[in-house]
Design a protein that fits this description.
The protein is mostly helical. The protein has helices spanning 2-5, 9-43, 47-50, 68-77, 107-116.
Length: 121
């Protein structure tokens, strides 16, 4: 305000430009830190927390509706099917699991454990 009161417009404009430059730098830094936070949380398996950093308005990083173009791009990135190698197959007899193991698994237990998990959406 002192520059304005004393008519020092050049100094006022210079100060405004300096402030604008700092604001631009801090915005870039926030964007980078959001991307780093997203990657860190995804690596930890905390998907729900990571998705809070997704910008839906962004054309590149945002969450998108599945269109034919997006499906094509995903298919292009997906690895090609490889032949099955016999060395990858474990040949052993099937083991029978007793039903008593599953008797304690109820809908309520599944629901309460699902609410406690943080590694899925």
């Amino acid at each position: 305000m002192e520059f304005w009161k004393h008519g020092k417009l050049e100094e006022l404009i210079a100060e405004c430009e300096a402030i604008q430059t700092r604001l631009k730098k801090s915005f870039k830094t926030k964007k980078q830190s959001d991307q780093e936070a997203f990657c860190r949380l995804m690596l930890k398996g905390q998907v729900k927390k990571a998705f809070k950093f997704v910008d839906n308005a962004n054309d590149i990083n945002g969450k998108h509706d599945i269109t034919a173009d997006i499906k094509k791009k995903l298919k292009d990135k997906h690895p090609k099917v490889a032949e099955l190698k016999q060395s990858a197959i474990i040949d052993k007899p099937e083991t029978k699991t007793e039903r008593v193991i599953f008797e304690n698994i109820t809908q309520d237990k599944i629901m309460s454990n699902a609410k406690k998990s943080s590694g899925s959406v």
